């Protein structure tokens, strides 16, 4: 075992510093008040259900300017425009990266994207403290993602409980069998299977192929990362997977509405009117 910190270790260490600093600037009481003042969550899981009923796929389309694995992906980055285009293109939900240091995102990106459309929004960040869950709701987020590899069982349970208490949905992200065994003990049915190994930054769709058949009854797979073309969606659909988190492949295209429509049509989606 190497002691060299992985990318995920570095991101989480940085996040701990940021959250400690944020707590000094904005008290949890202020955040709780702001979270209470928000309109109710838009129903993230439900929106995927509806879109699967309508067109056969529930796509979480991601708004991400840059990433540790790819550097800057989309220099001309306009979250509100992208959100509207994704909605027209057939997305069920949005994922908005709010991490600044590694993804060049911001909380303002989430607000701009959510206000520009009717889609439910995942606050895509690295959640290491319950404070960030309250903050996500205070920003208007409809869903949070918890990376099982980054949290203890007690932390997962606590953060999931806070999010579900707000009526938000929770995606529990796993990358191997041991993480999946921990995730399925929690309440949320949404299990995000990340095809990207966050330790070595390699993507392999075989991860979904290996893990999806192990999911217990009642749990729902979302295949995440490295999905590029219609063939990838069909390959996953053969496993029964209909929910996908897709970022880079769409963000690299000038016209993301058209790119999403082409992706869906190529994968056999129906009635994309
Ligand atoms: O995308 C990265 O390079 C990355 C690196 C370290 C931690 C997380 C990372 N990505 C976050 C994501 O969840 C992806 O943006 C999402 O699954 C979409 O992936 P893709 O379609 O491959 O952009």
From TrEMBL:
Alphabetized InterPro entries for the sequence: Aldolase_TIM, Indole-3-glycerol_P_synth, Indole-3-glycerol_P_synth_dom, Indole-3-GlycerolPSynthase_CS, RibuloseP-bd_barrel
Biological process, per Gene Ontology: L-tryptophan biosynthetic process
Coiled coil: none
Known catalytic reactions: 1-(2-carboxyphenylamino)-1-deoxy-D-ribulose 5-phosphate + H(+) = (1S,2R)-1-C-(indol-3-yl)glycerol 3-phosphate + CO2 + H2O
Pathway note: Amino-acid biosynthesis; L-tryptophan biosynthesis; L-tryptophan from chorismate: step 4/5
Transmembrane segments: none
SUPFAM superfamilies per UniProt: Ribulose-phoshate binding barrel
EC number of this enzyme: 4.1.1.48
GO molecular function, one term: indole-3-glycerol-phosphate synthase activity
Domain called Indole-3-glycerol phosphate synthase: residue spans: 8-262
Keywords: Amino-acid biosynthesis, Aromatic amino acid biosynthesis, Decarboxylase, Lyase, Tryptophan biosynthesis
Gene3D superfamilies: Aldolase class I
Similarity comment: family membership: Belongs to the TrpC family.
Protein name: Indole-3-glycerol phosphate synthase
Organism whose genome encodes this protein: Magnetospirillum molischianum DSM 120
């Amino acid at each position: 075992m190497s002691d060299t910190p992985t990318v995920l270790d570095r991101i989480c260490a940085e996040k701990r510093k940021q959250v400690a600093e944020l707590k000094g600037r904005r008290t949890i009481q202020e955040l709780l008040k702001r979270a209470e003042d928000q309109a109710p969550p838009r129903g993230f899981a439900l929106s995927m259900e509806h879109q699967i009923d309508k067109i056969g796929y529930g796509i979480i389309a991601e708004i991400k300017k840059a990433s540790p694995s790819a550097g800057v992906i989309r220099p001309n980055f306009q979250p509100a425009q992208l959100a509207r285009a994704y909605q027209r293109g057939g997305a069920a939900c949005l994922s908005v990266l709010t991490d600044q240091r590694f993804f060049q995102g911001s909380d303002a990106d989430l607000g701009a994207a959510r206000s520009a459309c009717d889609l439910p929004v995942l606050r895509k960040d690295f959640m290491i403290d319950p404070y960030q869950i309250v903050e996500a709701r205070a920003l208007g987020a409809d869903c949070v993602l918890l990376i099982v590899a980054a949290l203890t069982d007690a932390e997962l349970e606590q953060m999931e409980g806070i999010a579900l208490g707000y009526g938000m949905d929770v995606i529990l992200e796993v990358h191997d069998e041991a993480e999946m065994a921990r995730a399925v003990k929690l309440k949320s049915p949404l299990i995000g299977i990340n095809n990207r190994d966050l330790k070595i930054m390699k993507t392999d769709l075989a991860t979904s192929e290996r893990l999806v058949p192990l999911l217990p009854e009642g749990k729902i797979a979302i295949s995440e990362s490295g999905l590029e073309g219609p063939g990838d969606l069909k390959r996953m659909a053969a496993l029964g997977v209909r929910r996908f988190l897709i970022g880079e492949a769409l963000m690299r295209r000038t016209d993301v509405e058209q790119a999403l429509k082409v992706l869906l049509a190529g994968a056999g989606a129906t009635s994309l009117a």
